[in-house]
Design a protein that fits this description.
The protein is built from two helices and 25 strands. A six-stranded antiparallel barrel has the order 4-5-8-7-6-9. It has a five-stranded antiparallel β-sheet with strand order 3-15-11-12-13, with no helix packed on it. A five-stranded antiparallel β-sheet has the order 18-24-20-21-22, with no helix packed on it. The protein folds into two domains: 1-52 and 139-356, no CATH class; 69-137, Thrombin, subunit H (Beta Barrel), CATH 2.40.10. Strand 6 (91-95) and strand 7 (104-110) form a beta hairpin. It has 356 residues and is mainly beta. It is globular.
Length: 356
């Protein structure tokens, strides 16, 4: 969401394949299944590239300041509000047309025909009556990794002890600034998801962000798991905020959350990148950090790519343009912004499916 920047301590690339479940007409949202392997005894970054079915599709009918009436809406009061033990979904509204197209916000509350959102003031000022919107539930641990998938997409732990934890889903610190940030691990044991250090509370309702990624860490398991995500293709614009801070560099965890491959040159990052002034580390501007996901290892080292003198260069291979480097569907990336005098946010528009 625009009001909360996403941060992380690592990055990577991973491949996924889109498999149609049924023939789709041009007037319906494409539906499919995306599968990928998470390597044994390794860290595998994971980005869901499909979205859950819509709870509402329509347009803004009125309102402002974060509270908006929606055309032809007929909700139950509070139906879109998360409530532990009663309503397990957290919903978001994504704007599909108009000046604010591509931005999204968590739904805070709702009446029969309106919602309260948490957009920042610059986005609120762009929202107009008639703008098309969609409301969907976020993916959560319990919906991406249901109990029936134990032994397939993840491995259930045998105890709360570190020695008994088989699969950990690692979430980055989304509120911190700087580089190489801390993270929180959640694992599945004895019928529900538990957080390391707080093992008595069910964390199955924890959302998996749209604009960031998680890391699937397999411990002491001899086989890969296969994660399959079934859902709809998001055909709309999607913006991810990138934060730069004063006093030091800042890592932005971002997700290339599309189910089709791209190239680095097609991502459009030049518009939100501070270019380097030379190939030397002292002249380095912003950096794109990536991993090779094919090597089974934890805490993977990164490769850095930067933009200098009109093309993308990889540290150690500065004479080769990396613009044609393939960015696989579902890639997890870190954009390391250089220090600035005053904190700032730039919005990166993830390429729309069909425009790659």
């Amino acid at each position: 969401m625009h009001s909360k920047l996403r941060y992380s301590l690592a990055a990577g690339l991973l491949a996924a394949a889109l498999t149609p479940l049924s023939a789709q007409s041009v007037t319906t949202t494409p539906v499919g299944a995306v599968s990928m392997e998470a390597l044994a005894n390794s860290d595998t970054p994971y980005v869901p590239t499909l979205v859950r079915p819509a709870a509402y599709e329509g347009s803004i009918a009125g309102g402002g300041g974060g509270e908006y009436a929606l055309a032809s809406a007929a909700f139950q009061v509070g139906a879109l509000e998360y409530s532990e033990g009663e309503q397990s979904n957290t919903y978001y509204l994504q704007i599909l047309s108009g000046q604010a197209a591509g931005h999204h916000s968590t739904v805070i509350s709702n009446t029969e025909n309106s919602v309260t959102l948490e957009f920042e003031s610059d986005i609120l000022s762009m929202i107009q009556v008639g703008d098309r919107v969609v409301i969907r539930p976020y993916w959560t641990l319990a919906t991406l990794f249901p109990p029936a998938e134990a032994g397939v997409s993840y491995f259930a732990s045998t105890s709360n002890l570190s020695s008994g934890r088989k699969t950990e889903v690692i979430f980055p610190d989304v509120s911190g600034v700087g580089i190489n940030k801390s993270a929180t691990a959640i694992y599945y044991y004895n019928q529900f998801w538990r957080r390391v250090g707080s093992s008595t509370i069910n964390r199955g309702d924890v959302i998996v962000p749209l604009d960031a990624y998680v890391v699937i860490r397999h411990n002491n398991v001899a086989e890969n798991s296969r994660i399959t995500c079934v859902g709809e293709v998001d055909l709309g614009q999607f913006f991810i905020p990138l934060g730069a801070v004063s006093g030091g560099r800042n890592d932005n965890l971002v997700a290339y959350n599309r189910p089709v491959d791209s190239t680095l040159g097609q991502l459009g990052l030049e518009s939100v990148f501070t270019p380097s002034t030379s190939n030397l580390s002292s002249g380095r501007g912003d950096e794109l950090l990536v991993f090779d996901p094919s090597i089974p290892i934890k805490n993977r080292p990164v490769s850095a790519i930067y933009y200098y003198n009109q093309f993308w260069r990889k540290v150690g291979q500065s004479s080769q343009d990396q613009a044609d480097a393939v960015i696989p569907a579902g890639s997890a990336l870190v954009i390391r912004k250089q220090s600035v005098v005053a904190g700032s946010v730039q919005d990166w528009g993830v390429p729309v499916v069909g425009n790659n």
